[in-house]
Amino acid sequence: GNSVTQMEGPVTLSEEAFLTINCTYTATGYPSLFWYVQYPGEGLQLLLKATKADDKGSNKGFEATYRKETTSFHLEKGSVQVSDSAVYFCALSEGYDKIIFGKGTRLHILP
Amino acid sequence: DAGVTQSPTHLIKTRGQHVTLRCSPISGHKSVSWYQQVLGQGPQFIFQYYEKEERGRGNFPDRFSARQFPNYSSELNVNALLLGDSALYLCASSLFGTQGTRSTEAFFGQGTRLTVV
Q1: Nearest-CA residue of chain A relative to B33?
Q2: What backbone phi and psi angles, to 5 degrees, belong to B77?
Q3: Residue B82 to chain A, least CA–CA distance (Å)
Q4: Residue A28: pLDDT over 90
Q5: Contact criterion met (CB below 8 Å) for B91 and B79
Q6: A98 contacts B48? CB cut-off 8 A
Q7: What is the predicted pLDDT for the residue at A8?
Q8: Mean pLDDT over residues A29-40, rounded?
C-alpha cells in the first residue's frame, strides 16, 4: 500500500541554519505530495504542495521538489527562524481526500 | 470567513462509553474527512464524505461511524470506547474532494482532544 517515510526527529538547529527534512514515498499511481505543519496547540496547516513530477512547491521560504525517480519530496529552507519550530508532516494523496501522512518530524530552532 | 470548526475541543470519557464529535466545514465546502492523530504519530485517515455519501474508509473497526448532514456538517461517532481511542481527532474540509480529478486543498480544524480513562 501507499506510505510515507520521513526522517525522525527531533531536529534541533540554530537560527539561520539550513534545514533539510527528508521524505520518501511509496505509491502505486501518481499522487499529489504535501508538507503540512502543526504548531503547538494548533491544527494542521498546508505548507506547500506539488501535484506532478518535477513540480516545486514553495511557501514562506520553504521548498520541496517532487522527484519521481527517487520517490522523494525533501523539505528545505535556507535560513530557519525560531518561529519555524513546529512538527512537520510529509504526506501524499491519491484521491478522495484520503491523505496518508508520515509520522512527523519535530523541529526545534534555538535563538 | 470561519475556518473548519470542531466541537468540543476537549473531552474525557470512560472506557465503554460512546462519543460524538462534530465538525462544521468551511462555507461552500462539500467534502469532509476525519482523521485520528495519536500522540507522537501522523494523522490516520478514518472517513471521507462527499455530498452526504461515504466515499472513503480507512482501516478502523466498525465501532467508528460517521455521517454528513444536508448542510455538509458531519459527526464522527465512536462506540465502546477503548483506552487506545485516546487521540486528537481532526476534521478536514475541501471544496469538491477529487471526483476523478486532482484533489483540491483540504483545510483542517484544530481538532477534538479525546481522552479515554
Answers
A1: A97
A2: -115, 135
A3: 22
A4: no
A5: no
A6: yes
A7: 87
A8: 90
- What gap in Å lies between CA A62 and CA A34, rounded to an integer? 12
A91: left (phi over 0), alpha (psi -120 to 50) or beta: beta
> Are B64 and B78 contacting, i.e. CB atoms less than 8 angstroms apart?
yes
| Most B-contacting residue of A51, A96, A103 (CB-CB within 10 A), to test interface | A96
Q: Which residues contact A93 (CB under 8 A, 6 or more apart)?
A: A31, A32, A34, A99, A100, B103
> What secondary structure does DSSP assign to B17-39, as a single string?
--EEEEEEPPTT--EEEEEEE-T
- Give pLDDT tens digits for A86-103: 999 999 987 656 889 999
Residues of A with Cβ-Cβ distance to B105 under 8 angstroms:
46, 49
pLDDT tens track for A46-89: 999 998 899 999 999 999 999 999 999 999 999 999 999 999 99
Euclidean distance between CA atoms B6 and A17, whole angstroms: 37
Find the Cα–Cα–Cα–Cα dihedral B66, B89, B87, B62, rounded to 10°: 10
Q: pLDDT, tens digit, for every residue of B85-109? A: 999 999 999 887 654 455 567 889 9
What pLDDT is stored for residue A95 in this prediction? 62
Residues of B in contact with A21 (CB under 8 A): none
Query: Quick one: pLDDT at residue B100?
Result: 47
Q: How far apart are CA B103 and CA A92, in angstroms?
A: 11
